[in-house]
What we know:
Distance between the termini: 34 Å
Shape: globular
Strand order of the largest sheet: 7-8-9-3-10-11
Helix content: 25-40%
Amino acid sequence: MDIAIAGLCKSFHAGRRVCKALDRIDLRIASGEMVALIGSSGSGKSTLMRHINGLCVGDAGQIAVGGRSIQDKGRLARDVSDVRAGIGMIFQQFNLVGRLSVLTNVLAGTIHHLPLWRSCLMRFTRAERMIALEALARVGMAEQALQRASTLSGGQQQRAAIARTLVQRAHVVLGDEPIASLDPDSARKVMDALARINREDGTTVVVSLHQVDYALSYCPRTIALRAGSVAYDGPSTQLSHERLAQIYGSDLPDLLAPRDSGATDTPRPTLALTPAAVA
Length: 279
């Protein structure tokens, strides 16, 4: 699905002061692109992500995903929940239910497609469990399917959240700083998983990143925000250190994380099914 944003504005009031969080954002992201959204803290990255998913409403402007309206001139579309069903959201805080198994958390991605009584009772068929296990295998998490989510590391929880978007059958995946609190190895595994679903499934992926190096390593296109405005939109390969310095000035050192070994593609794990997992 493509994403179209036109004239998006959002302001917040801090006492008598008006702060512009988003200032006339115009963007078009084609179906199947993998795009990095970068910027220092307070640049508007998370705010823009939440507007694309309809979690926040702008003061003006329009957003459409796959040709269907999310919001227009400060109003959410009436069928926004239907459109949102095709958008997977990965948050920095993982958003898994710790007391439930990893498999059950991933199966929550099917709720939009289930009858109300089954979603309330969390009753899933064997076929749905198989789909969830396959999704976990694709992100290297099949062996943890029956563990409580609270026992996972941060990187494992994020990969489980990615598996949930696969089960959701999301055509667009939005990652709101999904690697911000992870160590370099875990961050690389999460980015590998996002790159794989973009490449293999043609899923549109937009990921906001605080670290510029990951954007350059994984995303062909980078959009840079500064003070709520688009400061750069183009090929990641053209984002030289000098150009970044022009955009971010004194904020640049905070955006440059030490470079690790770079993007690698982990082999797809073999799916190991247990009777308890699919029963």
